[in-house]
Amino acid sequence: TIDWESFDGSQFNGWKKADVCPEKPKNWEEMVKMAEALCAPFPFVRCDLYDVNGKIYFGEMTFTPAKGTLILDDDSCDFRMGEWLDLSRFLKK
Q1: pLDDT tens, 56-88?
Q2: How many domains does the chain have?
Q3: Which of 9, 19, 42, 63 could, after both became Cys, cross-link 15 (CB 3.0–4.6 A)?
Q4: Which phi and psi (to 5°) does residue 20 adopt?
Q5: What pairing do the DSSP bridges indicate for beta strands 55-62 and 46-52?
Q6: What is the domain extent for residue 51?
Q7: Quick one: the chain helix, strand, coil %, rounded to 5?
């Protein structure tokens, strides 16, 4: 979580809570500020940042929750979730 607490994702694809939470990066607060700035324009987005030897690397931003592993029953569920996300203001006019 944003508070660096281990997440119990058992309701998603049977993930179980990790027995040990990795050490919080020393630059965690900077990473959170970067993610908040990058995500600010969007109503919902996941931002992946990585700390490698004290240096912050950007991975991706995606509108898909659950690291892209969320298994939906059928395509209609996927399309319905997509309809909830209004990105029309980002389209070129």
Answers
A1: 999 999 887 766 666 777 788 778 878 888 888
A2: 1
A3: 9
A4: -130, 130
A5: antiparallel
A6: 1-93
A7: 30, 15, 55
